[in-house]
Write a structure and sequence with these properties.
458 residues; Outer membrane efflux proteins (OEP); 2 domains; 4-stranded antiparallel beta sheet; MdtP/NodT-like; coiled coil; OMP_efflux; signal
C-alpha cells in the first residue's frame, strides 16, 4: 500500500518527539534549574512576608513578653482611708480623744524570687511562641515548593502532550486524505481521531490542574498576585545540594543531630525550660510572704489633760507562715515536677516521630532514584525498540495500524511517568528539607502594629 511509507515516517516523528522534550529538559537543567530556583526563592520570600500566621505568632510572643514584665512587677500599693473611735451618741469627731481620721498605705511583697522567676518563665514561653514563626516559615517554604514542583510537572506534561497532539493531528489529516481516495481503512481514521480526542482531554485536564495550583498559591501570595500572574514558568526538579550536604552529616538511621535544630524540637526545649522554672516558682511557696502597712491618724479632740490630743502614727509588718504544706505547697511542687517529665517525654516522642519520617522519606528517595534510573536506562530504550519493531512489522504488513498507535501511546505514557518520578523525587526532597533545614531563604521579622500607651489617648 502506497500510504504506508509516508504514514510510517510520520509515526517515527511522533514517537521520537515523545522523548525529545524530556531529553532537552535534562540537558538544560544546569542553567535552567539555577534560574528557576532563584525565582522560587523569591516566591517563597514573598509568601513569607505576607503570611498572616507569622505575624500572629510573633504578636503572641511579644504579648507574652509584655505579660512577663507585668507579672514581675509588685502589686500596686493600697490606700486606706477612714475613721475610728467615733462616739455613736453624738457622732462628733472632737468629743472623744480616741476618735481619729486615718490615712494608711499598704504594700505586699511576693514570696522569695517569685517575681523574677515569673518573668523568666514568661520569656521562655515567648521564646517558644516565637519559634512557631520559624516552624511556620518551613511549612510555607515546603508548601510553596511542592505546589511549584507540581506545577512544573504539569507544564512538562503539557509540552509533551502538545507535541504529540500536533503530530497526531498531522497523522489524522494524512489518513483522512488517504481514506478519501480509498487508500486507507475507516478504522485507521477513527483510531487516529480517537487518539487526538484523548490528547485534547488530557490537555484540558492539565490546564485545569495548572489553574488549580495557581489558585492554591494565592493562599500565600494573595488574589492580586493571582490576577496579575496568570501563569508561572516552573520546573519539576531543583538543586538540592544544601540538603544533600546535611544528609551526609547524618549517622545511619539516627538523624537527631540535625533534628534538634528544627523549630518544633526547639519549642519542646522551651517548654521544658518553662516547666523547670515553674518548679522553682513552686519552691518559692515555702518562703513566707511579707507585707508592710503605715498609717497616720489625725485627732481633733483634746486629751485628758485638756491639751489637744497628739496625732498617731502606726506601722505594721505582716508575714504569713507556710506551716501546713502537705495539701498545697507539696502538691503544687509535685505537679510542677510531673510537668517537667511530661515536657521531656513530648520531646522524646517528637524526635522519634520526626526521625521515623526522615528514614521513611530517605527510603522513598532511594527507591525513586532507582526507579528513575530504570526508566532512563531500560524502559525508555525498550519502548523505543518496541516501536521500531512495530514500525517494521507494519511496513511488512505483519502489524496493524492500531499496534503503531499502541506503541506510540505506551512511549508517551512512559515519558509522562518518568516526569512524574522526577517530580515525586523532588517532592520527597522538599519534605526532607522541611525536616532537616534544607531550604535557603531570607526573611525579615514580621512587621506588626505597635501598641499605644494609655497616656497617648489622653
Amino acid at each position: 500500500m502506497k500510504f504506508k511509507p509516508s504514514l510510517l515516517a510520520l509515526s517515527v516523528c511522533a514517537l521520537v518527539s515523545v522523548s525529545a522534550p524530556v531529553f532537552a529538559h535534562n540537558m538544560a537543567t544546569a542553567a535552567e534549574i539555577t534560574a528557576k530556583q532563584d525565582s522560587l526563592t523569591q516566591l517563597i520570600e514573598q509568601a513569607l512576608r505576607y503570611d498572616a500566621s507569622r505575624k500572629q505568632f510573633y504578636a503572641q510572643s511579644q504579648a507574652m513578653r509584655e505579660t512577663g514584665i507585668a507579672s514581675a512587677t509588685l502589686m500596686d500599693p493600697k490606700l486606706k482611708f477612714g475613721f475610728g473611735g467615733l462616739p455613736v451618741d453624738s457622732f462628733q469627731f472632737d468629743q472623744d480623744p480616741m476618735t481619729n481620721i486615718s490615712l494608711g498605705l499598704m504594700q505586699q511583697f511576693e514570696r522569695g524570687e517569685t517575681l523574677s522567676l515569673q518573668q523568666k518563665k514568661a520569656n521562655q514561653q515567648a521564646d517558644g511562641m516565637s519559634l512557631q514563626v520559624d516552624a511556620r516559615e518551613r511549612d510555607i517554604a515546603n508548601g510553596v515548593t511542592q505546589l511549584w514542583l507540581e506545577l512544573g510537572y504539569q507544564q512538562q506534561a503539557e509540552d509533551i502532550l502538545k507535541e504529540n497532539q500536533r503530530l497526531m493531528r498531522e497523522l489524522a489529516n494524512f489518513i483522512q486524505t488517504n481514506y478519501s481516495i480509498g487508500k486507507n481503512e475507516a478504522q485507521d481514521l477513527l483510531n487516529a481521531q480517537l487518539q487526538v480526542s484523548k490528547l485534547d482531554e488530557k490537555l484540558q485536564a492539565n490546564a485545569q490542574m495548572q489553574r488549580r495550583i495557581n489558585s492554591q498559591l494565592s493562599e500565600w501570595l494573595g488574589t492580586e498576585w493571582l490576577a496579575q500572574n496568570g501563569q508561572l514558568l516552573t520546573l519539576n526538579q531543583l538543586d538540592w545540594q544544601h540538603l544533600n550536604q546535611r544528609i551526609e552529616r547524618s549517622d545511619g538511621t539516627e538523624h537527631y543531630a540535625l533534628l534538634v535544630d528544627h523549630p518544633m524540637v526547639k519549642m519542646t526545649d522551651a517548654a521544658i525550660s518553662a516547666s523547670e522554672t515553674q518548679v522553682e516558682i513552686a519552691e518559692q511557696a515555702y518562703a513566707p510572704q511579707f507585707g508592710v502597712e503605715v498609717m497616720y491618724a489625725y485627732r481633733q479632740a483634746n486629751g485628758m489633760n485638756g491639751q489637744p490630743a497628739s496625732d498617731l502614727v502606726s506601722a505594721y509588718l505582716t508575714m504569713d507562715l507556710p506551716l501546713f504544706t502537705d495539701n498545697r505547697q507539696d502538691k503544687n511542687h509535685a505537679a510542677a515536677q510531673y510537668q517537667v517529665g511530661v515536657a521531656k517525654s513530648q520531646k522524646d516522642l517528637l524526635l522519634a516521630q520526626m526521625n521515623a519520617k526522615v528514614n521513611a522519606l530517605l527510603v522513598d528517595r532511594e527507591n525513586l532514584e532507582q526507579r528513575l534510573e530504570r526508566y532512563r536506562n531500560t524502559l525508555i530504550e525498550q519502548a523505543k525498540a518496541r516501536t521500531q519493531a512495530v514500525e517494521r512489522g507494519y511496513q511488512n504488513n505483519t502489524a496493524q495500524f492500531s499496534d503503531v498507535i499502541t506503541a506510540a501511546s505506551d512511549e508517551l505514557t512512559l515519558a509522562l511517568e518518568k516526569q512524574r518520578l522526577i517530580t515525586d523525587l523532588n517532592l520527597v526532597n522538599s519534605n526532607l528539607a522541611a525536616l532537616l533545614g534544607g531550604f535557603d531563604y531570607r526573611v525579615e521579622t514580621p512587621d506588626i502594629a505597635q501598641p499605644t500607651t494609655r497616656n497617648a489617648h489622653q
